[in-house]
Amino acid sequence: MQFENSREFAKKLDQKDPLKSYRDRFLFPKVNNKQVIYFTGNSLGLQPRNTKKYVDEVMKDWAELAVEGHFYADKPWWDYHERMAKPLSKIVGAKPSEITVMNTLTVNLHLLMISFYRPQGKRYKIICEEKAFPSDQYMLQSQVRFHGYDPNEAIVEIKKRPGEHNFRTEDILNTIESVGEECALILMGGVNYYTGQVFDMKTITKAGHDIGAFVGWDLAHGAGNIELQLHDWDVDFASWCSYKYMNSGPGNASGCFVHERFHDQKDIPRFEGWWGTKKESRFLMKPEFEPMSNADAWQLSNAPILSLAPYLASLELFDEVGMEVLIEKRNLIVAYLEFVLNSIDAEVESTFEVITPSKQDERGTQLSVFLHGEGRKLFDFLMKNGVIVDWREPNVIRLAPAPFYCSYEDMYEFGQILKQGILNKDSN
To answer: Partners of 188 in the beta sheet?
Structure first.
């Protein structure tokens, strides 16, 4: 498509957008009494309008039914989380039986490592990417220390080449091969939080299995953003937060994937709790644990219903639209944003360097941009003028135009405000 950096062209794209009606199904903050341009769906998605209805329903059932809400609410609480398995399975490419929702992301990764990090003899090392999200770094370090290993020896970080912003798949595969039989686990972020790079999860997972290691993925920036086929890629486990691209609210519940081949392994190490027992015998209060024959066996406690309600509300929208349509718009709106950035770059003295990969299969919704010659003042200008972006040191802004609620006119308007911020600085 031949893009134009004009409001008229952006409006034409919006008129043709099959998702244009969904913008009105989200609530936008306002700055200076004007709806913001929101680029931080990769950090916290906007609130869907239907969220309040789902939360109010739980509050009403609690008020009118109290404990009986577990069984007699319109959506009974005792199996509330099960309603999420089918829509989530479509989003991450899994079987519904391989999905459960519980806890929060890092908690779930710790719990899953009980099952999938089993150091023994010379096989004790974990492979991850360098400068992974800090929570993952802390998690991995604490896990290997718990097992009695030195993180400096047990954790192998895949490096970027000097002067390059992104990882090369060939370097990842070479690292996996070199660690070989010493590798117990590969655990990486499916999408790099800083650059937005999407990893070749299928190829990396196979390479890990070829050396006898388990392979898991942190999909905090992947779920609801990119195409995933966790079952077909033979991924062992994965987890993700729900509050970024899936708009479930701050710090909300986390989703988990556990491949079906592990479901009926009676000897698999696992921390267990009441809600992982078989439903039909759960209230018999048996002293022995009888695991569910699906991913729910990893559940510990009864589900936090008030936390799950907003997630279920958002999943209703995903189920209506489907990932294929979201990804199609994502590709177009990100390409248009990149065009707008390049157009503004040609008009000002500052230089913008997009450090997110240019290949379509190596990026999702996010563009990370080095603002060479600019500093924090430009970020502050954008925020004061109603453009909500994310700043990362030293001078990178992350832009994530979520396809559900961002418009093409937003992209054009952002470019004009960005140019104004740079020119105003230059004129002072």
So the answer is: 217
To the question of whether residue 100 is assigned a binding role by annotation, the answer is no
Listed in sequence order, the residues at least 6 apart from 200 whose beta carbon sits closer than 8 Å to its beta carbon are 169
> DSSP string spanning 185-210?
EEEEESB-TTT-BBP-HHHHHHHHHH
Over the chain (428 residues), the average pLDDT of each successive run of 10 is: 96 98 98 96 97 98 97 96 97 98 97 98 97 93 98 97 96 98 98 97 98 98 98 98 97 97 94 94 90 96 95 98 98 98 92 94 96 87 96 90 98 97 72
Residue 155 contacts residue 126 (beta carbons within 8 Å): yes
pTM of the model as a whole: 0.96
221 is in an annotated binding site: yes
**CB contact at 8 A, 100 and 130:** no
Say if residue 200 carries a ligand binding annotation.
no
96 is in an annotated binding site: no
- Predicted confidence at residue 428, as pLDDT, reads 47
CA 26 vs. chain centroid, Å, equals 19
Query: Is 217 known as a binding-site position?
Result: no
| Angstrom distance (rounded) from CA 22 to CA 52 | 16
> 302 a known binding residue?
yes
Q: Give the C-alpha separation, 84 to 94, whole Å.
A: 12
Q: Identify the bridge partners of residue 186 per DSSP, sorted by sequence position.
A: 127, 215
> Residue type for 84, please?
M
Is 105 annotated to bind ligand?
yes
Q: Considering Cα of 244, then 245, then 247, then 248, what sign does the dihedral take?
A: negative
**Residue 370: how many CB atoms within 10 A of its CB?**
17
Helices vs strands, H then E, count in the chain: 14, 17
218-231 burial: b if 16+ Cβ within 10 Å, else e:
bbbbbbbbbebebb
* CB distance 202 to 227 below 8 Å: no
Tell me if the bond preceding 134 is cis, omega within 30° of 0: no
147 labelled binding-site residue: no
106 labelled binding-site residue: yes
